[in-house]
Amino acid sequence: MRERPLDEIDSKILRILMQDSRASISQIAKALGLSRPTVRRRIRSLEKRGVIKAYTIEIDEKLLLGALVVCTIQSSQPEETLMKLREISSIYEVFVTTGKPNIVAVARVSSYEELKELARNLSAIDPEADVKIAIKHVYRSLSYEMLARFGVVSLFCDYCGKKISGEPLTYTVHNRKYYFCCPTCLREYAKKLKKR
C-alpha cells in the first residue's frame, strides 16, 4: 500500500507545530476547525511516516551561562580522535572536514576550570595533534575580563588597538561593552561617541 502524500490539513498541522511544538491537540483542533481524534490520528500518522521526527525547543543562548568554545584539531588518527571526543561531556557537536583542520568540535563551558579541563582533555586525546581552541561567544557567568586575566584570551583597546595588559577599563553603551588600555583612550572614545 502506498503512503498518501501530505495534504493541506497535514501541512497546516505541521505549520502550527513548527511555530509551537508544545501546541496541544485541542489547540490545533480548534485552530483548524477539526475534531481532536482527527488531529490526533493525523499527528500519529505523521510521526509513524517519519515526517515528524522530534519535538524540540529553541534556546536563547544569550541566557545560558558560560562560553561557547570552538576547537579545531588536525589529527593523523581522526577515527580514534572522534571516538575519544565523544567521551568529553562539554563537547556537544563534532564535524569532520576534508581540509586542515580535519576535525572541528563545539563545546560549552561554564567556568574557567571547565575550560582548562577541556584543554587538558583535548591535549590528551592525541599528543601529536595540532589543537586550537577559540572562544566563540562568552555568556553571562564567564566574562572576557576574567578570561583575559587568566591569559586565555587577549583584549585589545577599542580606541587605539593596543593589546591590553592587566585589568581593562570598560565603558558600556547600549548594552555593548568597550575595552580600553588607559584612561586617556577611554576619555577620547567617550568624546568621539558624544559627537555622533
Task: Name the overall outline.
Answer: flat
CATH H level, superfamily name of the largest domain: Lrp/AsnC effector binding domain/regulation of amino acid metabolism (RAM) domain
Strand order in the sheet with the most strands: 2-3-1-4
Number of DSSP helical runs: 7
Radius of gyration: 25 Å
Helix-strand topology string:
HHHEHEEHEHEEH
Main sheet properties: 4 strands, antiparallel
What does this structure look like?
With 196 residues, the protein is α+β, with helices and mostly antiparallel strands. The chain folds into three domains: 8-48, Arc Repressor Mutant, subunit A; 61-145, 2-Layer Sandwich (Alpha-Beta Plaits); 154-195, Ribosomal Protein L24e, Chain: T. The protein contains seven helices and six strands. The protein has helices at 8-19, 25-32, 36-48, 78-85, 112-125, 144-149, 183-195; strands spanning 67-74, 91-96, 103-109, 130-138, 169-173, 176-180. The protein has a four-stranded antiparallel β-sheet with strand order 2-3-1-4, with helices on one face. Strands 5-6 form a two-stranded antiparallel ribbon. Helix 2 (25-32) crosses helix 3. The radius of gyration is 25 Å and the shape is flat. It starts with 7 loop residues before the first helix and ends with a helix. The mean pLDDT is 81.
What tags apply to this protein structure?
single chain; 196 residues; alpha+beta; Arc Repressor Mutant, subunit A; Alpha-Beta Plaits; Ribosomal Protein L24e, Chain: T; 4-stranded antiparallel sheet; two-stranded antiparallel sheet; 20% strand
